[in-house]
Design a protein that fits this description.
alpha+beta, Rossmann fold, ten-stranded mixed β-sheet, five-stranded antiparallel β-sheet, globular
């Protein structure tokens, strides 16, 4: 049945169809005030001097298409049923799992822990009348020839109560590459390290540590800045840098050597500034060119009142506002997404689009600001800039993510993005 309602994603009245599986949340109930707060599409602030989060609508947190209606919809109570899934048996050629949310990431982590080899799709594929999107996981019998392959796979699925995949009995496809083709890559399990200690923001460090150990249950080594220069980084594949003040640590040369030799660094938030200040990177070159064009540094402000200093400063900040990011979802960093996603923008850093041997996987456009406070000076500078990018450097990669995609551990729609950066980019 068709209805008209406010579309949170387009911010306009739209005609849409309600399906049997859709959830309906009534605003007229005992928790109506809570519903109003959690689904407020645009927060109304009494004062711009506020906390570091000014928007939190759940449709953007979960990346879930949502409509607000003025009329009543006839519904029936929710009945949660287990998804039916064909059983695994000796005829099974492969098991294919989707790549859409954190349960799929946990499934991958468990497969790796069990020692099962996994491939992933790099293009849409149709097999046995089912379409699988980019990033879908393939666990094939031919890649795991041990006698107990089916038992191992069943054990992982049972432990996680995972029923989202599909067993297939052939590797031949109607669209895409056959499942045994060389173009379908093996996923090399990455050894991940996370930088901690002096100079690193404990809040954003905690977000990522929690994400790895609790959300996706993947092992991580914590490396401290105090002894970072003595660490042999060749034993790791991925190094994650979170927000911090890295200027006095003098670690840039060691980081660049790690990437040149085939490592991957994932930079979150102002950790990107390490590579802004290195003119050998395409990010550094792009920012330098932008500064030269705009003559950064000359900004006469006239007379200012001291008592207004805090209010003046917030004109150049973003207080936890929601932004829409436009994606190139053919790139591994954006597998599992449609053409857009939503993030919490927490900082005032603005990065120009990359040139050269790079990919601008996510970018902000004119309509990207969705909700929350953004300073009047900062806001016009954000459109047509990079949100996420990947730079090939030597034999490795630099992954630039301008704001933490898993903000405070509750921004669930960013879980897949960070997993893509860890598992898929550079494979």
């Amino acid at each position: 049945m068709k209805y008209s309602g406010y579309d949170y994603f387009t911010k306009k009245e739209e005609i849409f169809t309600i399906r049997d599986s859709d959830l309906v949340i009534r605003s007229k109930q005992s928790q109506s005030n809570m519903i109003k707060v959690l689904f407020e599409p645009e927060t109304k602030l009494q004062d711009s001097l506020t906390y570091d989060l000014t928007a939190w609508a759940l449709p953007y947190v979960f990346g879930l298409r949502t409509f607000g209606l003025m009329e009543t919809i006839e519904t029936s109570p929710v009945v949660f049923e287990s998804d039916y899934e064909a059983p695994l048996d000796e005829k099974t050629y492969a098991y294919i799992a989707p790549w859409e949310n954190e349960s799929d990431i946990r499934f991958l982590s468990a497969l790796i822990e069990k020692g099962l080899k996994v491939r992933f799709l790099n293009k849409p594929t149709i097999i046995e009348s089912t379409e699988f999107k980019r990033g879908s996981l393939i666990i094939a019998k031919a890649d795991n020839p041990s006698d107990n392959f089916i038992d191992k796979l069943k054990s992982v699925k049972k432990d996680l109560a995972y029923r989202r995949g599909k067993p297939v009995n052939t590797g031949m496809v109607k669209l895409g590459s056959d499942l045994g083709a060389n173009s379908i890559q093996y996923l090399k399990p990455p050894k991940v390290a996370l930088l901690a200690g002096s100079g690193v923001s404990p809040t954003t460090f905690g977000e990522i540590w929690f994400y790895l150990e609790q959300t996706i249950n993947y092992p991580v080594s914590i490396l401290h800045t105090e002894y970072f220069k003595q660490i042999d980084l060749t034993q790791y594949d991925v190094l994650i840098l979170t927000n911090g003040r890295f200027g006095g640590l003098q670690i840039t040369a060691k980081l660049m050597e790690f990437v040149r030799n085939g490592g991957k660094i994932i930079c979150l938030g102002n950790a990107n500034q390490i590579f802004v200040n290195d003119r050998d990177t395409q990010l550094g070159k792009a920012v330098a060119a932008e500064r030269n064009r705009e003559e950064f540094g000359y900004n006469p402000t006239g007379l200012k009142r001291y008592e207004n200093r805090e209010r003046s400063e917030i004109s150049n900040t973003s207080a936890g506002s929601i932004y829409k990011v436009y994606l190139d979802n053919t790139h591994p960093l954006a597998y599992g997404y449609d053409t857009t996603m939503y993030i919490i923008k927490q900082n005032a850093y603005v990065y120009p689009l990359l040139q050269g041997n790079t990919w601008n996987v996510g970018m902000f456009k004119e309509d990207s600001h969705i909700s929350g406070f953004v300073g009047a000076n900062l806001k016009p500078n954000i459109p047509q800039t990079m949100a996420f990018g990947v730079e090939k450097y030597g034999r490795g990669e630099l992954v630039y993510i301008c704001d933490s995609p898993v903000f405070r551990g509750f921004w669930y729609s960013g879980n897949i993005l960070l997993a893509n950066a860890i598992f898929f980019v550079g494979q």
